[in-house]
């Protein structure tokens, strides 16, 4: 009996040791991965408090003397506030339109059965294979004919069209997991289809709406290529296009560039902090039947 107990204890110790080593390795890898993201952000913010000469001479040194001159110049010399407003208007409008039209389309595809439904799904998946660069020329010609070049709509409409497919597929996958009994209960209570969408499906689908909104916002907010082509005038120029202007016009002022990049990241961080708890839930549950 005694040797058997001793052998079992040895096995348990070996399993516990392997578990601790495996867990420590996982934490080490995750910490190293986190540092590759956190440190560049810290490096940018840290250098934003230095003058350009100090950034060039010692970019990895800590800015002990905090100087806000770069942030002042960002608003005075390059009018970053106007570009902020432009980006928020265009990206925010894109998110709103994508959620409205994408949500309605996802609701129809996930809860209705009709002829051609599989063909629509195939078409949506096929559009994901078309690169954005292939659509630039026809989209630009269409914007010229409708006089929307260098206007807010000149970037809102292309971004909305480009992000609709992703939003529809993700939201349709999530809505298809909602129990059928909720629809039946709503019908019994006298709700029509639109009321059912706004009062039942939208509240339940908040996680996937949040997930889609953050991705759509990021893609629209960071789209430098479309901004250069469709809205290249100063009065409607988004903030990502302004960063390129800084690098060419104030190429040696690295402190100003670091401050502008730090200001560019702030809206993304704020939005992510507010809806981060919904993102993982929306993406994982939306992938069950999508």
From TrEMBL:
Report the superkingdom from the record: Bacteria
The compartments listed are:
Cell membrane
One Pfam family recorded for the sequence: BPD_transp_1
Q: Where is the ABC transmembrane type-1 domain?
A: 84-275
**Lyase: is it a keyword of this entry?**
no
Q: How does it sit in the membrane?
A: Multi-pass membrane protein
Gene3D superfamilies attached here?
A: MetI-like (1.10.3720.10)
Is this entry keyworded Transmembrane? Answer: yes
Q: Where are the bilayer-spanning segments?
A: 24-45, 84-108, 120-140, 152-175, 196-221, 254-275
- Its predominant location is membrane
CDD domains associated with the record: TM_PBP2 (cd06261)
Instruction: Kindly state which keywords UniProt assigns to this record, in alphabetical order.
Output: Cell membrane, Membrane, Transmembrane, Transmembrane helix, Transport
Q: Which family does it belong to?
A: Belongs to the binding-protein-dependent transport system permease family.
Q: Which PANTHER family match?
A: ABC TRANSPORTER PERMEASE PROTEIN MG189-RELATED-RELATED, SN-GLYCEROL-3-PHOSPHATE TRANSPORT SYSTEM PERMEASE PROTEIN UGPE
The entry's protein name is Sugar ABC transporter permease
């Amino acid at each position: 009996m005694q040797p058997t107990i001793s052998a079992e204890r040895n096995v348990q110790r070996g399993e516990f040791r392997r578990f601790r080593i495996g867990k420590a390795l996982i934490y080490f890898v995750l910490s190293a991965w986190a540092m590759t993201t956190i440190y560049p952000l810290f490096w940018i913010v840290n250098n934003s408090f230095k003058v350009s000469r100090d950034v060039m001479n010692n970019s990895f040194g800590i800015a002990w003397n905090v100087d806000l001159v770069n942030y002042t110049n960002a608003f005075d010399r390059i009018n970053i506030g106007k570009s902020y407003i432009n980006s928020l208007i265009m990206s925010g409008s894109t998110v709103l339109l994508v959620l409205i039209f994408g949500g309605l389309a996802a609701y129809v595809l996930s809860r209705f059965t009709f002829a051609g439904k599989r063909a629509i799904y195939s078409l949506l998946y096929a559009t994901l294979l078309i690169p954005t660069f292939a659509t630039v020329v026809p989209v630009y010609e269409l914007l010229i004919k409708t006089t929307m070049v260098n206007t807010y709509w000149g970037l809102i409409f292309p971004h909305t069209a480009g992000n609709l497919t992703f939003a529809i597929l993700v939201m349709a996958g999530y809505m298809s997991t909602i129990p059928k009994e909720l629809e039946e209960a709503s019908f019994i209570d006298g709700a029509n289809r639109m009321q059912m969408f706004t009062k039942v499906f939208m509240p339940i689908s908040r996680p996937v709406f949040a997930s889609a909104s953050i991705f759509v916002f990021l893609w629209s907010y960071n789209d430098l290529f479309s901004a250069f082509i469709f809205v290249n005038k100063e009065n409607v120029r988004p903030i990502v296009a302004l960063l390129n202007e800084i690098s060419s016009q104030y190429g040696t002022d690295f402190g100003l560039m670091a401050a502008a990049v730090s200001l560019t990241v702030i809206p993304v961080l704020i939005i992510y902090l507010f809806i981060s708890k919904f993102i993982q839930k929306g993406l994982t549950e939306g992938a069950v039947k999508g």
